[in-house]
Specification:
Blueprint (H helix, E strand, L loop, with lengths): L1 H26 L5 H14 L16 H6 L8 H27 L4 H7 L1 H5 L2 H4 L3 H12 L3 H14 L12 H25 L5 H7 L11 H7 L7 E4 L2 E4 L4 H24 L8 H14 L8 H12 L8 H20 L8 H39 L1
Antiparallel strand pairs: 1-2
Helix pairs in contact: 1-4, 1-5, 4-5, 4-8, 5-15, 8-9, 8-15, 9-10, 12-17, 13-14, 14-15, 14-17, 15-16, 16-17
């Protein structure tokens, strides 16, 4: 009876939160501009060509399938896109609830996903991020390592980040699973290339992206902006990028730092130094590192963490709880910039302050996660030495 009441509560939150998102899409008609771009790309894809001349095309090949899917339904492209995305959203909700019932875990996980519409805003249903999030969730909850690798490989074919699940795999199955992941990614790419050739431009477009105004790397410029040294932003690749001679160096340094941290977490797990952490905790932490050290930190990235958090928080010993609160607050702060205020472009004081708060909240959350990872590794090392 208690579980049934919990399910009813979660379902009610999900319905109200999605109604809120749909209301925003109706009231803020400029918000779904990304969907208009997707429709433009989809027509090229249906004609047998990737949008290679468009620098905003920065996705692996399998995204083509997602973009052309709305054409299979009779209504307008934007209506079809939102409805299909809503269905994917509902499937993630179902998987979170199913995992909650199976594990007899905490209801906090499903509540997190149900409430996501309130704190991620309209990007939830107007961007592509729900699709790789679904595959990442599936990769987390299945019990067979090879199937987890397949789901992660398909997810990586949409956006690369689901491949970060390798950090949470156990050493005895990691090598085989990685090979299956790579093979799955390669197979999905090959199938798409049979219909649409020459899709490699997304790689160079990704490499050529500058340090975006939303990223953690711009935080020093934002702080300086409060004291009169207004940062200069330019519109590039569909967003704002900082104009600075040090921007490329900062971006490269952040990327290198992120790679080192991710490799360190992966090795600690593979060598058995994180025995009490659930793979969902490790996966969540790894993706948080990748976001914080990326040259890009778009508001829709919070959707990734919402999906992973909805699984991690089902486990009562999860290290994600307090960091997730900070991440939710960070995401709410992001809503002031998008879709409500474009003041960051002109370095308005209120926009700078909100963006600084957003990034600091996220960095504190990441610091807490890394602290718990480090403490777990040290405790495991001490236990191993005492046994000897």
């Amino acid at each position: 009876m208690k579980k049934n009441r919990s399910l009813l509560l979660v379902g009610s939150i999900w319905v109200v939160a999605r109604a809120w998102v749909l209301f925003l899409l109706i009231q803020l008609p400029w918000v779904p501009y990304d969907v208009a771009l997707y429709e433009k790309w989809s027509k090229l894809l249906l004609a047998g060509s990737f949008p290679v001349a468009d620098s905003m095309w920065q996705y692996p090949d399998l995204v083509a399938a997602v973009l052309v899917l709305p054409h299979a339904f009779p209504w307008s492209y934007i209506t079809n896109f939102v409805l299909v995305t809503l269905a994917v959203d509902a499937l993630i909700m179902f998987l979170s609830l199913r995992n909650f019932r199976t594990r007899s875990g905490s209801i906090i996980g499903p509540v997190l996903w149900a409430s996501a519409g309130f704190w991620t805003g309209p990007v939830l249903l107007t961007r592509l991020d729900l699709y790789p999030t679904l595959l990442a969730v599936l990769a987390l909850i299945v019990t067979r390592p090879w199937l987890s690798a397949v789901f992660a490989g398909v997810g990586a074919g949409l956006k690369v980040w689901p491949a970060a699940i390798v950090a949470g795999w156990r050493a005895k199955t990691a090598v085989t699973s990685i090979l299956i992941l790579i093979a799955t990614f390669g197979l999905t790419t090959l199938v798409v290339r049979l219909f649409i050739p020459e899709g490699d431009s997304f790689i160079s477009n990704q490499i050529n992206r500058g340090l975006q105004a939303e990223s953690v790397g711009v935080l020093p410029y934002l702080i300086r902006g409060l004291f009169g040294a207004d940062p200069t932003f330019i519109a590039s690749n569909g967003t704002l990028e900082i104009v600075s001679s040090q921007a490329e160096l900062i971006g490269a340094g952040l990327t290198l730092f992120g790679v080192v941290i991710v490799i360190s977490i992966t090795l600690l797990n593979w060598f058995g130094r994180l025995p009490n952490l659930h793979p969902a905790d490790i996966f969540f932490t790894t993706v948080t590192v990748l976001i914080a050290t990326n040259r890009v930190f778009s508001p829709q990235f919070y959707i990734w963490l919402a999906g992973l958090g909805s699984i991690a928080l089902i486990y009562r010993a999860s290290i994600v709880r307090i960091p997730m609160i900070l991440i939710v607050l960070s995401s709410i702060s992001a809503q002031y910039i998008y879709p409500l205020n474009s003041g960051l472009e002109t370095a308005e004081t209120d926009a700078l302050i909100v963006q600084i708060i957003r990034l600091i909240l996220f960095l504190v959350a990441l610091s807490l996660l890394l602290f718990r990872i480090g403490r777990t590794a040290l405790e495991s090392k001490r236990s191993a030495m005492q046994e000897k």
